[in-house]
Amino acid sequence: MKTVYHKSESRGYANHGWLKSHHTFSFANYHNPDRMHFGVLRVLNDDYVEGGMVFGRHPHRDMEIISIPLEGELRHGDNMGNSGVIKEGDIQVMSAGTGIMHSEENANEKPVKFLQIWIIPNKTDVTPRYDQINIEENAVQNDFQQIMSPNPDDAGVWIHQDAWFNLARFDKGFSKEYAMHKSGNGVYVFVIKGKAKIANQILDERDGLGIWDTESFVLEAEENSEILLMEVPMKLPS
């Protein structure tokens, strides 16, 4: 098993006043040649947006974009006619494909915190699409809850890539083995809350650990924890 450990404090950081963002991988003005991606996981941003502030309308193309709100609410609008609010307990996905334009707004007074994740797709020039679902209503304790996969008929949202996302809400002391869905995939483990251990590596809140060249690993909660597991192909599309 091979691993790469990213301490929370090692992430890139941008403070725009109304927007504060921690970048696990190179993004915008943060460039680290050693932190360009983990397989096809290209962006993992931990964002904080002040109340009443707006990401103006901007374009995306040929990227799978996933947003997971952790606190507050974020209003979405795009040129496909989609509009609405995503909030804690939801997951949103956009397949940018041939091109989309969208905006995001914190329409409330309270700040919003959310994870913005980009996955390089296995298909380009697809028809753009949008989806959002509530994942809280199917939440499970002390198990892996699948919230994304490559299969439209499977649990969670789906994307154009052989990638699976799971949430783990583990009580202190609970452990469970995670098995890879596909050979050649790796998992990037990100601790949203709490503290966890994989092998001999302790992961504190907002730490990340990439794992590959293994069929499985054991995740153990050192405290009551909420952990996001992002399984992705390690080989970039040709």
TrEMBL record:
UniProt domain Quercetin 2,3-dioxygenase C-terminal cupin: residue ranges: 147-232
InterPro entries found in the cross-reference section: Pirin (IPR012093), Pirin_N_dom (IPR003829), Quercetinase_C (IPR041602), RmlC-like_jellyroll (IPR014710), RmlC_Cupin_sf (IPR011051)
Keyword set, alphabetical order: Iron, Metal-binding
Co-factor binding comment: Binds 1 Fe cation per subunit.
Gene Ontology molecular function: any one: metal ion binding
Family label: Belongs to the pirin family.
Protein name: Pirin family protein
Lineage, top ranks: Bacteria, Pseudomonadati, Bacteroidota, Flavobacteriia, Flavobacteriales
